[in-house]
Amino acid sequence: MITFTTNFGDIKIQLFADKAPETAANFLQYAREGFYNNTIFHRVIDGFMIQGGGMESGMQEKPTKAPIKNEANNGISNKVGTLAMARTMDPHSASSQFFINVANNTFLDFRAESMDGWGYCVFGEVVEGMDVVEKIKNVKTGNHGMHQDVPVEEVIITETKVEEKVEE
User: Fold this and answer.
1) What is the spatial distance between Cα 11 and Cα 133, in angstroms, rounded to a whole number?
2) I need a surface site. Which of 50, 56, 108, 142 has the fewest CB within 10 A?
3) Reported pTM
């Protein structure tokens, strides 16, 4: 379980380590290292998704680890409340950035192992704090340099807490 404390409230996330092992491990490593602390949700599109995990205040991009393999062929759909990895046109380019779906975005699902068919890997879901996600998706957005859909008032992840499961 991972909790993002934001200036809008807390978002609690459960990872699908069984369905997207490499992706969940990658995200967990970034979370454990505190990488997401003081990053912003830099792209917000109501009716689509809220994206974060790679930019600091003022749209400064953070350096990341090497990209990971796309595990979108895991059978999990980009439904409301799920987390998926953001990437470039290259299907295997995801590193730290993720998005939370605020609509059923099934057009982002895996279709084939091809450039346009890979889709976006769902690796977790919001288990508490969808009200916070709803608040974030409704913020006023504008342009910042070449970036569009940037919140006018920054939405900041101030702290990341990782709750480790204790096996008895």
Assistant:
1) 7
2) 142
3) 0.96
